[in-house]
């Protein structure tokens, strides 16, 4: 065999899996379609569950996160001017870490480079073969040349549009999907955060989220109709809309500035089962997508990686298939709970076009219940900081 595990996709899940396997003495090759610069230019999530924090430390990539990340003990959920504080620390004993996915990815590249790991960029025409034989193979084109690698296992970490999921025959897959009728317009701006903790704001004008990357870099979002494009949203229009969706006490403190990045992402819930097909295992967005409202996307990929690195280590080091046989069911149990939480947060906080008058009252009542019930707040906090692996 050319290597033990071929990993399709050099984003955070593929890199983290490779890093953990390499540290366990397992050889990997990562195949990535785009350049490293492109992977690092994608602005993604910013919140790490504590389980993800610990996994990154275990992988030997926690140093910069611990030095530069910001631990948050709580968050705010608001309905117009009504503000409900969710105190993670008091309710669950846990906290989350504000540290951007881009930074996590950069740290993983640096660690993999230091270990001399093989990461091939510009890989095209990937085909995953022989998944039910004694060894798998992956064929691809690199710099115009056809190449072939044989391996024991293939990890599909290549995202929603990747080839891995589609390698599983369509009639063997079960797909579950909910598409939401809106997107999130997000901006990055070099301004100080409007609040020291995140604000998830429900308002009569729709949802807004005030997040951050550091003391002088914010990530703010507003819910927008799916037909909107970035060109429809000047900075001025964004700030006006954002200001009127967050509580007035926060709006009074808002500091605005030019955006340095602006993008629109549609919201979707999606799961494809099973996560295993012979020698192929799906990880992260290749198998499931959550709407960003619960900050679960990267964290779910991390728990998949946790289960799979254990399973592959058992298979390759201890000659036991128990872990790989259990991987799909084990990962899916946690995935479905995060699906539920992300869907509930999305439903609780967004305005749906054409909704009836009842819907806004349900959101209001949910917020009122959160404000008055510690049990309800603890339920939200427990899910937000991350369910146990
Ligand atoms: C972000 O900072 O980009 C972010 C934070 C929390 C979310 C979604 C996105 O729920």
Provide a descriptive summary of the structure in words:
The chain is of the alpha+beta class and 389 residues long. Helix content is 38%, strand content 30%. It contains 13 helices and 20 strands. The chain has helices spanning 12-23, 36-41, 50-58, 63-68, 88-92, 101-114, 163-167, 235-245, 248-251, 297-317, 322-349, 357-372, 374-385, and strands at residues 5-8, 28-32, 47-48, 70-72, 74-79, 82-87, 96-98, 118-121, 123-129, 136-142, 145-151, 153-156, 174-189, 199-202, 208-214, 217-224, 259-273, 276-277, 280-282, 288-289. Strands 6-5-14-15-16-13-17-20 form an 8-stranded mixed β-sheet. A 6-stranded mixed β-sheet has the order 8-2-1-12-19-18. β18 and β19 (280-282) form a beta hairpin. It is globular and about 60 Å long. The mean pLDDT is 97. The structure holds P-hydroxybenzoic acid. Residues 45-47, 198, 209, 211, 219, 292-293, 295 line the site of P-hydroxybenzoic acid. The site of P-hydroxybenzoic acid has 10 residues, from β15.
Low-confidence stretches: none
Largest sheet composition: 8 strands, mixed
Strand content: 25-35%
What's the total count of β strands?
A: 20
Sequence of strands across the biggest β-sheet: 6-5-14-15-16-13-17-20
Helix content: 25-40%
Structural class: alpha+beta
Cα-based radius of gyration, to the nearest Å: 21 Å
Mass-distribution shape: globular
Ligand roster: P-hydroxybenzoic acid
> Count the helices. How many?
13
* Average pLDDT over all residues: 97
């Amino acid at each position: 065999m050319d290597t033990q595990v071929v990993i399709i996709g050099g984003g955070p899940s593929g890199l983290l899996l490779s890093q953990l396997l390499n540290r366990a003495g397992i050889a990997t090759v990562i195949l990535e379609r785009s350049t490293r610069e492109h992977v690092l230019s994608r602005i993604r999530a910013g919140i790490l569950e504590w389980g993800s924090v610990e996994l990154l430390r275990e992988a030997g990539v926690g140093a910069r996160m611990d030095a530069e990340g910001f631990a948050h003990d709580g968050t705010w959920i608001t309905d117009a001017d009504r503000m409900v504080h969710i105190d993670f620390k008091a309710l669950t004993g846990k906290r989350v870490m504000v540290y951007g996915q881009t930074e996590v990815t950069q740290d993983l590249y640096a660690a993999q480079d230091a270990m001399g790991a093989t990461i091939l960029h510009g890989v095209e025409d990937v085909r995953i073969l022989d998944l039910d034989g004694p060894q798998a193979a992956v064929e691809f084109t690199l710099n115009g040349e056809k190449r072939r690698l044989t391996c024991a296992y293939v990890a599909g970490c290549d995202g929603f549009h990747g080839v891995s999921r589609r390698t599983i025959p369509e009639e063997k897959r079960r797909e579950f999907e909910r598409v939401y009728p809106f997107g999130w317009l997000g901006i990055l701006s070099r301004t100080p955060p409007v609040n020291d903790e995140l604000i998830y704001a429900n308002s009569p004008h729709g949802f807004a989220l005030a997040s951050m990357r550091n003391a002088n870099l914010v990530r703010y979002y507003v819910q927008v109709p799916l037909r909107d494009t970035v060109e429809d949203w000047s900075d001025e229009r964004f700030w006006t809309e954002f200001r009127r969706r967050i509580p007035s006490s926060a709006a009074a403190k808002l500091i605005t500035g030019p955006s340095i990045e602006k993008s629109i992402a549609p919201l979707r819930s999606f799961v494809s089962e099973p996560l295993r097909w012979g020698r192929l295992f799906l990880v992260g967005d290749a198998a499931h997508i959550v709407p960003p409202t619960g900050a679960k996307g990267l964290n779910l990929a991390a728990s998949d990686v946790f289960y799979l690195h254990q399973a592959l280590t058992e298979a390759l080091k201890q000659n036991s298939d128990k872990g790989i046989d259990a991987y799909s069911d084990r990962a899916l149990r946690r995935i479905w709970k995060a699906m539920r939480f992300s869907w509930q947060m999305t439903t609780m906080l967004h305005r749906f076009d054409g909704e009836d008058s009842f819907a806004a009252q349900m959101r209001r009542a949910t917020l009122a219940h959160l404000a008055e019930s510690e049990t309800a707040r603890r339920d939200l906090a427990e899910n937000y900081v991350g369910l146990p692996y």
